[in-house]
Amino acid sequence: MLTKVKMKNVYSITECEIDFQKSKYGYKKDMIVNSKYVNPLAIYGYNGSGKSAFINGLGYLASIMNYGESIELLPNLIILEKARKEHLDYPYLISEIELEFSIENNYYSYLLLLESNKIFKEELYLNGKRSLERNRGFYTTYLNYVMTSDVKNLEKSVLLELKDSFSEAYDFLSNIIYIADHRTNSISKVLLGSDIYHIFTKYSQEVKNILEDIPYVSSYEIVKNKDNYYIKYDSDTLLPIKYLSNGMFNLSLILSLILAAPENGVIVIDEIERGLHPFVLDEILKLVNKKKIQLIFTSQNTHLLGSLRPDQIYFAQFSNYQTSFNRLSSLEGNIREVNNIEKMYLSFQFEK
After folding, report:
1. In angstroms, how far is CA 276 from the centroid of its own chain?
2. 243-286: per-residue pLDDT in tens?
3. Nearest alpha-carbon partner for 292 in 23, 19, 18, 37
4. Is 83 helix (H, G, I), strand (E, B) or coil?
5. CA distance 46 to 205
6. Are 97 and 61 in contact (CB under 8 A)?
7. Angle at CA 262, nearest 5°, toward 256 and 264?
8. Residue 108 above 90 pLDDT?
9. Which of 61-70, 73-82, 141-150, 230-239 shows the lowest per-residue confidence on average (mean pLDDT)?
10. Residue ranges of E strands in 149-282
11. Interhelix angle for 51-67 vs 167-174, to 10°?
C-alpha cells in the first residue's frame, strides 16, 4: 500500500507530502491497515483550493504506467512565469512525483522527475537500495548492471519497459485506478480496450448484491442486449442506458472498479460524492476496507468527516497562487471521538 506521497510543482502544488502513517488515536481502529496506516484518506477544501491537483498527479502516474504516454501534467503556471522573469531554471521548471509503498515485506520508493511534460529522471529503490535509475534516456538496472540509451520515447516510464524485471513494483503502480472529475476520463488497467459500460455489465450482479444491502437504495443491473446497454430493475423492466442518472453512473463506476481492483490496490477519486447519497458514501468506505483496497478521495460532502479519524483528513488551502495540505491531526491534536468534526469544520475551527 501507499505509505507516503510527495509532489513538487504539480498543477497548483509547489511542494506537498501526504503521509498515511497513523497517529495516536484510540478509536475507529477499523480504519487502520497493517497496524501502521490509515485507510481511506480524504482531502477537503474550498472550491479552487487545489484538492484535485494531488489526485490528478496520481492520475498522471496511472496514465504513464498504463498507456506509456501521459495526460498533460501542468506545472504551476504563475510560479513558472515568476521563474522565467527571474531567469531561474531549477527547480521551478521541474515537476516531481515520489511514491513510497510497501508490498508484503518489501518497501519501495519510486521517483519521477519531469520537464516539459516528459520524464527525464526515474529512480526505484527497494528496501533502501537503488534498483533502477534513468537520467535523460540513459538508464541503469542494478539487477544486471546493464546501461543502455535506447529509450526513444521519454514520456514512457522505464519501469514500464522493464516490467518483467521489476514486476512487483510495476504491477502495484500500474494497478492504481484513477477516477477523474470527468468520469469518462478515468484510467484503469481494467478499462484498457473496453468501454465503461462493458465494465458495468461485467460486475453488474455483484454491484446489485451490494446495493441490496444498502437501505433505501434501489438495486439494478446494467445488461447488454445485442449492441445496446440497458438498466434492468427486474426480470421484465429494461430501460435504455441513457436513463442512467449521474449518481447511478458514478455509483456503478466506483463499485465496479472497487470489485475489479486487486487486493491491496489503490483507487483515487476526485469528488467521490458526485450524485451519491451520504448513506451510500458510508457503505463505500466500509467496502474498500473489507476488500482491502486503499482509497484516496477529495470531497465537499462534510457528512463523511464524522466517519473518519483526524489522521485520515487533509485540508487543501490555496494562498499566494499555491496549494498546501494540512493534516487535521497536526492542526488539532486533541480531537476526541465525541467531538463533531463536521461541525468544527463548518464553523471554521481548522483555518490555519
Report:
1. 19
2. 999 999 999 999 999 999 998 999 999 999 999 999 899 999 99
3. 37
4. helix
5. 37
6. yes
7. 115
8. yes
9. 141-150
10. 177-179, 221-225, 228-234, 237-240, 266-269
11. 130
